[in-house]
Amino acid sequence: MWIPTEQEKYGVVLASFRGTVQHGLPLEIGDTVQILEKCEGWYRGFILKNPNVKGIFPSGYIHLKNAHVKNKGQFETVIPVEDSVITEMTSTLRDWGAMWKQLYVKNEGDLFHRLWHVMNEILDLRRQVLVGHLTHDRMRDVKQHITARLDWGNEQLGLDLVPRQEFSMVDPDEISVTELYRLMEHRHRKKETPTPASTHHLFVHVKSLMSANLGEELEVFFHIYDGRENRPLSERFFVRLNKSGLPKSPEKTERQCTLFVDLGSSDLRKDVYIVVHIIRIGRMAAGEKKNQCSVQYRRPFGCAVVSIADLLTADSKDDHLLKVYACNTESEWYQIHENIIKKANSRYNLSGSNTGLAVALQLLHGDIDQLRREYMVLFTRGVSITRKLGFSDVIMPGEMRNDLYVILEKGEFEKGGKSVARNVEITIYVLDIDGQILKSYVAAGSGEPGGDEYHSLVLYHNNSPRWGEQIKLPIPVDMFRGSHVRFEFRHCSTKEKGEKKLFGYSFVPLMQEDGRTLPDGTHELIIHKCEENTSLADCTRYLKLPFSKANIPSNNQTLKGTKESFWITSFLCSTKLTQNGDMLDLLKWRAHPERINDSLSKLKEIDGSEIVKFLQDTLDTLFGILDESSQRYGLKVFDSLVHIINLLQDSKFQHFKPVMDTYIESHFAGALSYRDLIKVLKWYVDRIVDAEHQEHIQQVLKASEYIFKYIIQSRRLFSLATGGQNEEEFRVCIHELFMSIRFFLSQENKGTSPVAQTQAVFLRAFPAVYGELLKIFAVREVAGFVRDTLGSLPAAAVVVHGDCGLEAVKLQCLAKTVESQLYISPESRCILLPVVLRILQAHMKEQRDLVMCARILTSMLSLIKKEENGASEPAVSEEVDLIVERLLGVLLRTILEISNRPQPAGPAMRFQFQDVTGEFVACLLALLRQMSDRHYQQLLQAFGSKDDLRDFLLQIFTVFRILIRPEMFPKDWTVMRLVTNNVIITTVLYLSDALRKNFLNDKFDYKVWDSYFYLSVLFINQPCLQLESFSPSKRKKTLEKYGDMRVMMGCEIFSMWQNLGEHKLNFIPAMIGPFLEVTLVPQPDLRNVMIPIFHDMMDWEQRRSGNFKQVEAKLIDKLDSLMSDGKGDETYRELFNSILLKKIERETWRESGISLIATVTRLMERLLDYRDCMKLGEVDGKKIGCTVSLLNFYKTELNKEEMYIRYIHKLYDLHLKAQNYTEASYTLLLYDELLEWSDRPLREFLNYPMQSEWQRKEFLHLTIVQNFDRGKCWENGIILCRELADQYESYYDYRNLSKMRMMEASLYDKIMDQQRLEPEFFRVGFYGKKFPFFLRNKEFVCRGHDYERLEAFQQRMLNEFPHAIAMQHVNQPDQTIYQADAQYLQIYAVTPIPESQDVLQRDGVPDNIKSFYKFNHIWRFRYDRPFHKGTKDKENEFKSLWVERTTLTLVQSLPGISRWFEVDKRELVEVSPLENAIEVIENKNLQLRTLITQCQSRQMQNVNPLTMCLNGVIDAAVNGGLARYQEAFFVKDYVMNHPEDGEKIGRLRELMFEQAHILEYGLAVHEKVVPQDMRPLHKKLVDQFHLMKSSLGIQEFPAYVRASPVHFTNGSPRTCRNSVPSIISPDGGRGVARRSYPAVNRYSSSSLSSQASNEVSNITGQSESSDEVFNMQPSPSTSSLSSNHSASPNVTSSAPSSARGSPQMAEKHKHSRENACLSPRERPVSAIFPNPLDPAQRAASHQIGDTTLPRSDPNLSAPDKVRPTPSSWSLDSVKGGVPSFSDPVGKLLCPPIPPRPPYAGSSAKTMRSQSPVLMSRSPQKATMPPFTPSPTECHSTSLVSNSPVLSGSYSSGISSLSRCSVSEASGTELPAGEQLGAPLPTATTPNAAPDEPVRRENKTPPPYSVYERNNPRRPVPLPHSLSIPPQTDPPALPPKPHQLRTGSMKLDGTSDPRVPRPRPLPRKVSQL
Q1: Contact indicator for 411, 567 with CB cutoff of 8 Å
Q2: Which strand (E) or helix (H) includes residue 992?
Q3: Contact of 1540 with 1836, CB cutoff 8 Å
Q4: How far is CA 1634 from the centre of its chain?
Q5: DSSP alpha helices (H): ranges in 1570-1706?
Q6: Is the dihedral of CA 835, 836, 838, 842 positive or negative?
Q7: Which residue among 385, 1163, 1520, 1706 is buried most deeply as judged by most CB within 10 Å?
């Protein structure tokens, strides 16, 4: 059975366990587990990093570790019993591990690798600590290293700063808050500002000397030289180099490397240099030939100099190549370095162009011990130490040094009988008292060991040589007495023998008879003659001789008169020997008692370094004198003691204080001295007030600490010796002394007076006395002394401005007091606290010396600690009471004051400001944390009135708000922030009771409650409390220690809110925003608590005003800003909805509540989508779509204008970023349209300045025009230019008007000159629940980017939605797809249906104008899907090939404020196989026509498109393509079975003939332009065309076909505008102008004219959209999903002229045809089944002209079309003869050429015109009854059913008409009289009168105008082109785009042919 574990609580996994058993817990190696139960070799527990998952695992897999268990039981926590540093390392490395991987993902390679190295280093150190073999010191170093690495990593990764004491993490609960703050501050400061090192060291490593003329060994000497004082600062470093210039002992690094130690900061100047002297060892002359002489001399070689300041700027360890210079004359050698420094170029030159000394130089900073730790390798490898000449800036006790430095300055020698000067060499020896040479005590410098002798340089032929060489004699102190230095002078011969001949010597003893050493300075030594070496063997002989010219006896004239002298400079650096005689006199006072007075007087003049050398001896001397003759010398000894004590205050000697302390404790023996010391001290204190000069007294008081030390130690020694005698006497003396002190302290003086300065001196020294007094007196007694002394200070001293004065010193004294050992004792605290608080309170009230006040308060509060159970000791509790009573209020005021103060500018001041704020905050927190229930009760009861309590609450709430500001603490101080929040929430819980009791009901105070709620909201929203952002381990620790403080505060807010009652209304709507912000915190418990408050608010608002509009408005306003900041999530939306809906179920206002909740929920959906889309990395399309959705929601549902405008500008910015300039213009236009042209002032808003409404609208207009220009949407820009121009004109602002007109003109130019790309449109369906709300289960039409085709668009959409699945079919998805938890995309291309038909149908309008109207302001799009209905005929699939046509209507037209808009409505119709065939051939004919025209007008640079098109059509027809349509629709069975399709079959037949005619004409044109290399292909095409004609049975074209020229839609727009038409030939030449229409019976295909084309085109009335784009489909069955881009974009279509419907056709068929649509690349070409219009309808439809739907829409009917006979017919009936005609008006045979609309000035208008009538074809009007014809119009009873009409098609046309049917059809023309006998429609144009005679003159009736009298059913309008124009003037310019010419409209449905059709009424551009 499972037993709870007692010991086995914690373990580490040794091997991975998969957990495959039942209830098994998978484990990874290294996981830590907490064990709950055990059972037979198994444990049950959980992994610490995931405590929620519990399971079992084998006990053998676990290594158990000792652990400490907290809170035993269900919620126990386990802490491993191990070194806290190890625990921290483990947890930190785990946290780092996860973050380290993220660094790799984020591509932060540098930090990734650095962190990896540090982690490995920490692991290695952890291993060392765990093994436990380290020494104590090494363990300390390792831990220090570990914590430094941990802190570095935490800082780099942005983790929290860890407070530590002695390398261990600190538990914030176990120390005071002030102590915690101090630790954090210390670590933060340490991290921020490393203290600059005061000592520096220079590392030198000699590499080599490079020179061309080496060959001799070298000696290199380095030293540091002061160029300002011209003296060396250090001893020399000496390196020997071999003949190659490399170090002689490369294996001994200490011979090549040195450290020049103890350089002060003052030595790092520009005029301090490293000087290098190089000496060669060899022959006298460098170039001298080798001779027998083997004697070598030390000769000058060169010198190099480098400034130390240069090393400060250089890289850490650069190699330097120093230039080596040689002096011009050897006599200058001693000062060559000075000459180089001074740049005295004439005295030196480069020793060789290639000569250079390679050295590594590096400056190191810090003390030598620190360097040993940091540069361990350097010291272990070996480095010599080169000292300063003299002591360093700080002399350390125990430092042993005894170095005598001798500089060989110069010599004066006689010739000695020689003709030339001597070559002098000096040999130096040190001899002891016995005359023996001291071995190894002559050193040329550090680096090389000392030798027995030293040989100087030899300067060639110089009797006055100057060497300047420095040697070091490190002689031990005990050998100094009696030793001397001997200098032997030898002449070095340059002859072959090369002997060195002795000619004299000098000597100097090292110590004088009286014990003084050789004094520092230059000494002129006597040169004694001597030529034999043996004469020097016995030194006793010459030691009796005088050695220096300074001490020659006056009677020795021989030595005085000698000219030969030798000068040296000596300098002693010794810690044991002195050169000072006064010092020796004092120490030997017993020998000369009479000199005591002088010696004591002279002590002050002795150098301090001499005194500290003999400190103990000097003190013994002083107290010896005092004991023997205190009466006589007491005062002098006291003054001397004061001098020595104050000497140790100097920074140079401060390290000798411990020496004095040791002396007092161990060596001091003056048991009687205390009496004299007290007496003299009191004598001085009593004289303070009256003394004029206070300086000496101040020196005495400055030394009072050590004086008291001597007094106390002396008294203790006396007590020990006498058994405590005279105790009372001693106490009285001390009391009297303190009375004197209190008296002088109580004197009130100005801060600058001498007495005040003396008081300050005493107060500085006074706290140091406490510890000494405690050695004899009881704690309470000493506390009494201190209290009385501090209490005697004057209450308020006057502080002079700019003088810190006594007040600052008083506080310093107080600070030292509370930090002293005395204050730690609770006994003394209760005595001292009142006086400390009194002084502190006075300063804080006046806001003076706040830094020091904070320090005092911090020290006081750090001593107060609660016990573990939370209770305090009575004494501590009283202290807290006292501090709260005296300081809480003033502390709060101080924090408020310094927080509201403007921060000082300087960085140092800013730190101080920050410090003091933090210190006071820590003090406040510490104090509040110590307060218990009793303290709070006492505090609240202490307020005398409600106003005082109110002020206190407001104050403390404000302070708390300051404390939780993010800038209060550095961002990585999470530990401190959590402690702060814990204290705040505890305090707020106490204070909320006071709030409820004192400020509710009739005593309600809004300000206090508002402050409370405001604080609570800020508290919950703090970033440092958002546990969701913490790492799991950090979150776990925080929850264990503090819980979730947000939930606690949330519950408190709810509780307080419920207590408010009717006062809640005061906080509606003010608190809605703050509470909403709280509910958006992602904490479920908090949300559950807080969301119901909104129900409460709605309820109270409903009671007050009958609605909750305020609540709604505030909620909506705040939601936007809060959610934009990243708050809230989908869970919150659901929770908000569910909680509030549940709450309002039983409310009377339930309906309006549900409406509000629904609105807010929908807004949240959109805002969440918006936020998700705006994330970095999201694509622009998604962002734009989401912004549009939100923008529309604000406008339509919420009517929030300001939010609406804000999102307009956000959308505008997105469009600009995506370079959607047209969409950006439409977006900004939304804001523009909200403004009027008024002078109303507008406030500053977004980026707009304060300006009038007119100015802002003008600015917007200009910006929009600029963007329309950039987006090439110039037509829209023109409208705005005109509007702006009107405004300028109305204000007579002609300057701007001119600019605007010029801008408008430039836009017109751009329309004509610049090319615009025609965009593709795509329908996109977004299906599935995974899409954002604004896209979910909706379909859109999108305008593609430039050059973007279907495949590219599909790929782009899949990239934008990477998780989406592309659907491979175009069918509407079912519900399973709609509800799926996935994303499905359905994409296919769609075709736009243009609105503006009049421009597209007008002749002569350039393509670049038409293209704008084709692809702009598009509301509707269509898509065709081919399918087979019924059984598919395998032989001929065209029989059953139907087309499903879908029309999509958008909510807004494209382009608009977005590149895509949602589909508002979709309509679906089916197109029959016959209709489909007609459309296909029409489209192909249109394409051919367009290409031929382009070829003729030279618009086409390349003829290949025409070639390919001709080849495709002819080849398909020859190879059986056309036959398929014949087989399908011209067979008898089909005609019999589909009688209603008679007219359509006729239409198909006409199209076939028309195609053949166009092909013939096209081949003629092709022959003119085809290049030579394509002639064979052309010939082949001609042959195939004849074959095609014969296969169709065509020998000759019927008359009506021959007479109809091919009408080319893009034909010659400029020529068409002339009144005299030009007849177009295949050559493109002009024909003869004709005014009347000729009777033409035969017409060759090579001479078709555009005149005839125009005439023919007008017979059939208005054409369809003629410039639409079609896609070439190989066969009608090709899937319309495919995006075929090979076709020309400029192919156009025209409407048919013949009627193609039957009155007997079933309604359903009518409807299906009227709603027919084309495939995405096949534009609409004709309307099928029109309904006749009655006159009223005609007039009305004509009036609205272009405002009706476009002609290209399949739901619109064609203009007046000729209906066929009602009877069914077949090919046989045509062959049988001509049908009978009963209508007297006659029949009109329609041409095969599609019509074009007329325009003013059209050529050859010789017949009366009648306006074509537009008929509405919208689906709603599809079933309207037929209109009766107008009585004023002519009626035709029956028209030939097979009248062909030319229409465009992209597929090859097919026809099976036989020759006889054509000839019979052409033979139905009647005589002219019959034709013209019928009344013609009355023309309202001026050309109506002359029309009749022209018609009568024609003997041959005009072709295509044969009238039949037997068909009364519908009027046939005469073509526009047959009317005669009244004049031949050029046509009028078209109207402005936004004007409507109503004058051209006639009531009877006719229009003036000269006047163009009206343009639509202007709409706002944004609505277009």
Answers
A1: yes
A2: helix 974-998
A3: no
A4: 76
A5: 1575-1592, 1599-1602, 1613-1616, 1650-1659
A6: positive
A7: 1163
CB-CB contact of 1251 with 1239 (8 Å): no
DSSP 1475-1518: HHHHHHHHHHHHHHHHHHHHHHTT--S-SHHHHHHHHHHHHHHH
1805: nearest Cα among 1650, 1925, 1653: 1925
Confidence of residue 1519 (pLDDT cuts 50, 70, 90): low
Residue-wise pLDDT tens digits, 1596-1623: 554 444 444 444 444 333 333 333 333 3
Distance from C-alpha of 310 to C-alpha of 1002, rounded to nearest angstrom = 80
Distance CA 470, CA 261 (A): 18
- Is the CB of residue 1129 less than 8 Å from the CB of residue 1136? no
Max mean pLDDT range (773-787, 1184-1198, 1262-1276) = 1262-1276
**Which residues 6+ apart lie within 8 Å of 1468 measured at CB?**
1444, 1445, 1446, 1447, 1715
Q: Please name which of 1813, 1818, 1770, 1841 lies closest in space to residue 1916, comparing C-alpha atoms.
A: 1813
Nearest-10 Cα torsion for 637, 643, 648, 651: -170
In angstroms, the Cα distances linking 1013 to 709, 936, 957, 1079, 1123 are 60, 21, 10, 14, 22
- What is d(CA 1538, CA 1554) in angstroms, rounded to the nearest whole number? 24
Q: Is the pLDDT reported for residue 1536 higher than 60?
A: yes
- Residue in this structure with the two tokens 């039942």, named with its chain if needed: 22
DSSP assignment of 754-805 equals HHHHHHHHHHHHTHHHHHHHHTTS-HHHHHHHHHHHHHTS-SSPPPPTT--H
Q: Which pLDDT belongs to residue 1052? A: 93
Name the phi and psi angles at 1420, rounded to 5.
Answer: -125, 145
Judge whether 1635 and 1648 are in contact, CB under 8 Å: no
Whose tokens are 């000569």? That residue is 355
Backbone angles phi, psi at 51, to 5 degrees: -70, -10
- Sorted by sequence, the CB contacts under 8 Å of residue 1064 that are 6+ apart come out as 1057, 1096, 1097, 1100
What would you report as the CA-atom Rg of the chain, rounded to the nearest whole angstrom?
A: 57
Dist CA 1314 CA 1309 (whole Å): 8
Q: Residue 910 — very low, low, confident or very high, per pLDDT cuts 50/70/90?
A: very low
Please report, rounded to a whole number, the percentage of residues in the chain having pLDDT higher than 70.
Answer: 75
Joined tokens for residue 1103: 């009671």
The long-range contacts involving 805-810, CB below 8 angstroms and separated by at least 24 positions, are 805/751, 805/752, 805/756, 805/760, 806/751, 806/756, 806/759, 806/760, 806/763, 807/751, 807/843, 807/848, 807/849, 808/849, 808/852, 809/759, 809/760, 809/763, 809/764, 810/763, 810/839
Predicted local confidence at residue 1702, as pLDDT: 36
The answer to whether 1393 touches 1422, Cβ cutoff 8 Å, is: yes
Q: pLDDT tens across 958-1013, in order?
A: 999 999 988 888 888 889 999 999 999 999 999 998 888 888 888 888 999 999 99
In a 3-state reduction of DSSP, which class is residue 747?
A: coil
Give residues with Cβ within 8 angstroms of 616, minimum separation 6: 659, 663, 667
pLDDT at 1180: 77
Contacts (Cβ under 8 Å, ≥6 apart) of 37 = 2, 3, 4, 5, 43, 44, 45
- pLDDT, residue 1352, reads 94
Which amino acid is it at 910? R
Contacts of 483 (CB under 8 A, 6+ apart): 430, 431, 432, 433, 438, 475, 509, 510, 511
Strands 257-264 and 384-386: parallel
d(CA 1364, CA 1460): 19
For residue 1955, pLDDT beyond 60: no
Sign, CA torsion 1757/1761/1764/1765: positive
Other Cβ atoms within 10 Å of 1010 Cβ, number: 17
Identity of the amino acid at 1045: M
Q: CA 1424 to CA 1670: how far, in whole Å? A: 13
